[in-house]
Amino acid sequence: MDVKAFKMDGLGNDFVIIDNRQEITELSKEQIVKICDRNFIGCDQLILIEKDNTSDARLRFFNSDGGTSDACGNGTRCVADLISKEKNNKIITLATLSRILKSKILGNNLVTTEIGAAKTEWNEIPLSNKLNTLNLNIKINDINNNEYSGGTAINVGNPHVVFFVNKINNFDIATIGPQIENHKMFPEKCNVTIAEVINKNLVRVKVWERGAGLTKACGTAACATAFAGKLNKLNDDNTDIEFETGKLSIFIDEKNSIHMKGPVSDIKEILIKL
Fold this sequence. Notes:
Blueprint (H helix, E strand, L loop, with lengths): L1 E9 L2 E7 L9 H8 L8 E6 L6 E7 L4 E2 L3 H15 L3 E5 L4 E8 L2 E8 L20 E4 L5 E4 L1 E4 L3 E6 L8 H9 L9 E9 L2 E8 L3 E2 L4 H13 L6 E6 L2 E7 L4 E7 L4 E6 L1
């Protein structure tokens, strides 16, 4: 089976995008895992574009382990840019499992997407028990085996936990990430971010994504980090979240709705032979 697709990324967070609005492609979990395998095509997530009666399109996100995800910030921005070129429209609305997202194409490969309001109640994350989501008091160790306790839980379409530390380079996200992702506290697992506040307008992060592992960037993690930082009085409403590959600019408006701005790559057409 030959499948036409697109390859795009946001700050190196890369996606295979399949336009399935004609409903001609049915992929098994095994085929999704194969496409995401970097020994075959390779991507952090696979995105299916489907028809929707109320938005420009509906998106379905699949992690590299074949599981589904309710939201993907960078993936949404990439698809918005793709459909914008098709429709010749700078405002694109896309339906996801969690909410309808509006994106604006700014030019020069910059796209901004309104993610909406974050959820912070324990049952909205969700957590397995009623806990203080501002400080989950989860213990993690740095590379010198020093113990740290913390973790703020945020849901921005998918569950995140953010640890604010003094030096992110003292923490091995590849070790901590899977431990927290699979912690019994998170019945639906979670995304994990280690964050270092540089100043009120800049936070550096490392991210472990649920079902995908280490990624170069993560849009919803940037949103969750900025909102968690605001709740902890660590950063302002306008904050840059810095990954090793670049920055995403986050703005939290007066209604606490989160807006994310950043670059997307050029569009590359590919043919997948399954």
